[in-house]
Structures are given as structure tokens and as C-alpha cells.
Design goal:
mainly alpha; about 65% helix; elongated
């Protein structure tokens, strides 16, 4: 374990100063997102505090803790929106009971694509297109207690889907940018070169 290069954080900044810089970092993060669409300008804050003598690595530690909280909160919001739509979809399509008594979307074929409809931003996956979503429903029509040809049903479902994605996409963008920012902060803490960063990211 002694050979593993775990970064030492020196907690030497007073609590009142750390509280001040925590608030400043939060404001800077929000301001960067609003003005530039991404929080990259926070890296100047990181560079500034690591250049202090002695370095204020505890201030950078607090920033990372805040960014981790942001990731958790954004993921919670995203999951809540997905659950809301999937609950609506199951109720609207009226999934029939399977042999074990389940009546949710997990009993359908293509369920993994359906449940992960928003796509994985880390893998660069795009959300399911409305056409693919409806195609999954059509392939499962024997498992549904609703007539998919019912006038207006397709339009209602796909409209609800499109509106849901409009709320999820900004969250995914913020997750992607915040995730990348955490990586960049850690690279600076460890003083990685461009070549070393390329190895890590490769």
C-alpha cells in the first residue's frame, strides 16, 4: 500500500477561509455553466490554489466533494424523470400480467433498451428515437392490454416521451461536463502530463 501514490491533502486552511472558498467555487461552477454551458473555467480556481505556497489542496478537496455531490444530485434528478416516464408508459400501455404476476415493463422484450432509453452519456449513447420506442411497443403488442392503433395513442405517448427527454438532456449534458471536470481537477492534483492523461483516458 505504501507504494500506491495516494495524493496527500494538507488541511491547513482555516475553516472560515475554506467555507468562503467553498461558496466561491459553487458560485463559479454555476456561473461557468450559465455563461459558457460548461464548468471548465473552474480549473483556473484549481490552478490558483494549487500554486499557493504552501498549496491549498484542502480547498481543491472541498471543490471535489462539491462536484461529487452535484453528480449524485444530477443522477437523482435524471432517475426521477426516467421513473416518471416509465411509470406513465407502463400505465398507458397496460402491460399484461406475466406468469410470475408482474405487470411492469421488465416483462417485455427489448426491456433493457426501454429502461435505459435516455442513453449512457459516458459511452456516448444517444437516447432512443421515438420511432424505436414505438417499435418496441409494437413488437410487444401481444403483452399489452391496449390497442396500439387506438386514435391518438401513439401521438400522446411520443409527445410525453419527447417532453421527458427535453428535461433529461440538459441534466445529461451537465453530468458529462461535471464528470470531465472532476477528471481534470484530479489530473492537476497529481500533476499529470498531457502524455500521462492520454494514457489514463485511453
Amino acid at each position: 500500500m505504501k507504494l500506491i501514490p495516494i495524493r496527500r491533502i494538507n488541511f491547513i486552511t482555516s475553516e472560515s477561509e475554506r467555507a468562503y472558498y467553498r461558496d466561491k467555487a459553487r458560485l463559479l461552477y454555476q456561473q461557468c455553466l450559465q455563461e459558457q454551458g460548461k464548468p471548465d473555467c473552474v480549473l483556473g480556481f484549481v490552478n490558483h490554489h494549487l500554486a499557493w505556497q504552501p498549496e491549498a489542496s484542502d480547498v481543491v478537496h472541498d471543490l471535489l466533494a462539491f462536484l461529487a455531490e452535484m453528480m449524485l444530485d444530477l443522477n437523482r434528478q435524471k432517475r426521477a424523470l426516467q421513473k416518471e416516464f416509465l411509470t406513465y408508459l407502463a400505465a398507458t400501455l397496460r402491460v399484461k400480467q406475466d406468469k410470475s404476476g408482474k405487470t411492469d415493463l421488465e416483462t417485455l422484450s427489448g426491456k433493457s433498451r426501454l429502461l435505459d432509453y435516455a442513453g449512457d452519456y459516458q459511452k456516448g449513447e444517444e437516447p432512443l428515437s421515438p420511432d424505436v420506442l414505438w417499435d418496441i411497443a409494437r413488437k410487444n403488442r401481444g403483452r399489452l392490454d391496449v390497442n396500439l392503433a387506438q386514435p391518438g395513442l401513439k401521438e400522446r405517448v411520443l409527445d410525453a416521451y419527447t417532453q421527458n427527454l427535453e428535461h433529461i438532456k440538459p441534466l445529461q449534458e451537465q453530468l458529462r461536463h461535471t464528470d470531465a471536470l472532476i477528471d481534470q481537477v484530479v489530473y492537476r492534483l497529481y500533476g499529470l502530463t498531457e502524455e500521462e492523461i492520454a494514457i489514463v483516458e485511453g
